Amino acid sequence: MASFQPLPRLWLLSDERNDAVLAERLASFREPVGFVYRHYHLPPAERLARFDTLAAIARREGHVVILSDSTLTAREWGADGVYGAPLSLYPTRGDMLTIAAVHDMPEMAQANRAGADAAMLSPVFQTRSHPGAPVLGPTRFRTLARHAQMPVIALGGMNARTARRLGWARWAAIDGLS
């Protein structure tokens, strides 16, 4: 793993829906969190400008800043790490944190082979972004998590209440933390 020990317990993912509250929310956490910047809805120049603004706030608060993009772009933008599909996580020479997006057993195996620093496993529960889509549920989530060779971050319908219900300390949210 890159130089981010311990791995944050809470992770906030950016989205068009929570953009208006991100700056305020990043400044309000009582502990360092992981911040995964996505903002796929913005054109490239605007996406970079918004990243720079939010990353500055996050770093001032001691948060880890992860970019959902290529490893090359994450490095160019000065992110602490990269988030994406396991097969997209190119070797980072140990200088960047790698977070694999995992949804099933084949992706978990790919994340293990890639040597990802963490796996963000989803969707655990129903989400507003994908209403009616199949979910893992607690039992399948735990089964997949047992196969991980790295820490697992629960994502999908997560908030403080569902994290307690799942009994999982490390979790991420879009709406549930914003």
Query: How are the strands of the biggest sheet laid out side by side?
Result: 7-6-5-4-3-2-1-8
Number of helices: 6
Calculate the terminal CA-CA distance, rounded to whole Å: 27 Å
Number of strands: 8
Task: Report on this structure.
With 178 residues, the protein is α/β, with parallel strands linked by helices. The protein has a single domain, classed as Aldolase class I (TIM Barrel, Alpha-Beta Barrel). The chain has 6 helices and 8 strands, in the order βαβαβαββαβαβαβ. The protein has helices at residues 22-26, 44-60, 71-77, 105-114, 137-146, 160-166; strands spanning 10-13, 34-37, 64-68, 81-84, 97-102, 118-121, 152-154, 171-173. Strands 7-6-5-4-3-2-1-8 form an 8-stranded parallel beta sheet. β6, α5 (137-146) and β7 form a beta-alpha-beta unit. The two termini are 27 Å apart.
Summarize this structure as a short list of keywords or feature phrases.
alpha/beta; TIM Barrel; 8 strands
